[in-house]
Automatic annotation (TrEMBL):
Residues 63-145 form the Nitroreductase domain. GO terms for molecular function: oxidoreductase activity, acting on other nitrogenous compounds as donors, with NAD or NADP as acceptor. One of its GO terms (cellular component) is cytosol. Keywords: NAD. PANTHER family: NADPH NITROREDUCTASE, OXYGEN-INSENSITIVE NAD(P)H NITROREDUCTASE. SUPFAM superfamilies: FMN-dependent nitroreductase-like. Gene3D superfamilies: NADH Oxidase. This is Nitroreductase family protein.
Amino acid sequence: MEQNQELLKKRRRTFHYRKEQISDAQLHDLEAYGISVQSEEQPWFFAVIQNQEILNRMAEMTGLDDPFYGAPTLIAAFAKDNAVSAVVDTAFALSSMMNAAVNEGLGTCMIGSLKDLLNHPEHMDLRNLCRVPDGYTCIGSIAIGFPDEEEDLPDHQNTDVFSYIR
Ligand SMILES: Cc1cc2nc3c(=O)[nH]c(=O)nc-3n(C[C@H](O)[C@H](O)[C@H](O)COP(=O)(O)O)c2cc1C
């Protein structure tokens, strides 16, 4: 239990990554945890993007300055269009991958900008590059890599978000 709490505390976003690629064993660990979450339908597809040229191209296309923070791996998550709980289940899977990343000594950050690119009809070439099946919509992606430096993050402050019906 204590270990779980420590893990959750460490699961904060990382904005600085080393260039070094994560290992395939680490990647497979994240994948295994990701797809083991509770889900009837398993309504997801994941594109693991580790090609630096393609990452650079995607970063440039967002029009943002350093949108992936130099992370060497991005996992883009796609939810099946005709499924009952696709977005929630796929978000659970991403969250589970982020937990597994902490166990592997890796940092992560949720990245929203890739979603807009991968769902844009003008950029179907990118979707094809990612070999995404038809009938799936990108809901987000996570940047993953070795943290470059310790970041001093403020605690989350707002605890007034619960009501109690007893
Ligand atoms: C759907 C979604 C998309 C996000 N997209 C980005 C993004 O593109 N870039 C970014 O720096 N943070 C993005 N964030 C925010 C970070 O992932 C992170 O939640 C935020 O920095 C707070 O981190 P902390 O809880 O560790 O303080 C996104 C968060 C969510 C939930």
